[in-house]
Design goal:
Helices cover 31% and strands 17% of the residues. It has 202 residues and is α+β, with helices and mostly antiparallel strands. The chain has two domains: 20-169, 60s Ribosomal Protein L30, Chain: A (2-Layer Sandwich), CATH 3.30.1330.130; 170-202, Wheat Germ Agglutinin (Isolectin 2), domain 1 (2-Layer Sandwich), CATH 3.30.60.80. α2 (36-50) packs across α3 (68-75). The longest helix is centred in the first third of the chain and has 15 residues, at 36-50. The radius of gyration is 20 Å and the shape is globular. The termini are far apart. The chain binds zinc ion (ZN).
């Protein structure tokens, strides 16, 4: 069931085989609420996957920490835990799926929220640019517009990911920290990063 070659003006209302309503339930369970960003993220992942060559293994890059990583983790094999998803926080609402295979030149597709296209959808625009003082204001209409807009608010670019962002991070040798007695990557120094003044706790 490939939608490749679908004319751009025919918007696919499915999110990788899930209806919008089914996907919304998945988002509620995983994310805690049907956050607009994760819902739009579903259409973003769907568009990216449909524009990858069929059958390839891909990694993901997410350019924001908020919401969008959860859409990627819900709909693809790429998670923060298996490191197939890298969150590189550039503050842009965009994601890239790219070919894992080095020989491919790490070619992939980047999908972003197109600020020009978003203007045609007032509630999405207000949410995206944080123009509404009250979060609850227009919530029902916002979700309706997200569903109706689908991929109509998205842009797509063909990209090749720079090698330094595709490299898997190897921890190398593991030492035991002389101060806290916990294991840490020896490359971090004489003691673990926490004991070097980065303690998280009081
Ligand atoms: Zn330590």
């Amino acid at each position: 069931m490939s939608a490749q070659g679908t004319p751009a003006q025919v918007y696919c209302m499915n999110i990788l085989g899930h209806t919008f309503e089914d996907y919304m339930e998945m988002v509620k369970r995983f994310h805690g609420s049907p956050a607009p960003g994760v819902l739009i993220g579903g259409f973003m992942v769907d568009l990216a996957v449909r524009n990858l060559p069929e059958g390839i293994l891909y990694d993901a890059i997410c350019e924001t920490r908020s919401c969008l990583p959860d859409a990627i983790q819900l709909l693809t094999p790429c998670t923060a835990g298996n490191a197939w998803l890298k969150v590189i926080n550039l503050g842009r609402y965009a994601l890239t799926l790219y070919d894992k295979d080095k020989e491919s030149g790490h070619k992939g597709v980047r999908v972003f929220l197109d600020t020009e296209k978003v203007r045609a959808w007032p509630e999405i625009n207000a949410w995206f640019f944080k123009l509404n003082p009250s979060k609850e204001q227009g919530r029902v209409e916002l979700l309706r517009q997200i569903k109706e807009a689908g991929e109509a608010i998205l842009g797509l670019q063909r990209v090749s990911v720079k090698p330094q962002f595709t490299v898997k991070q190897h921890k190398g040798r593991i030492s035991v920290c002389p101060e806290c007695r916990e294991a840490y990557p020896a490359d971090d120094g004489e003691t673990c990063l926490s004991c070097q003044g980065n303690a998280l706790y009081l």
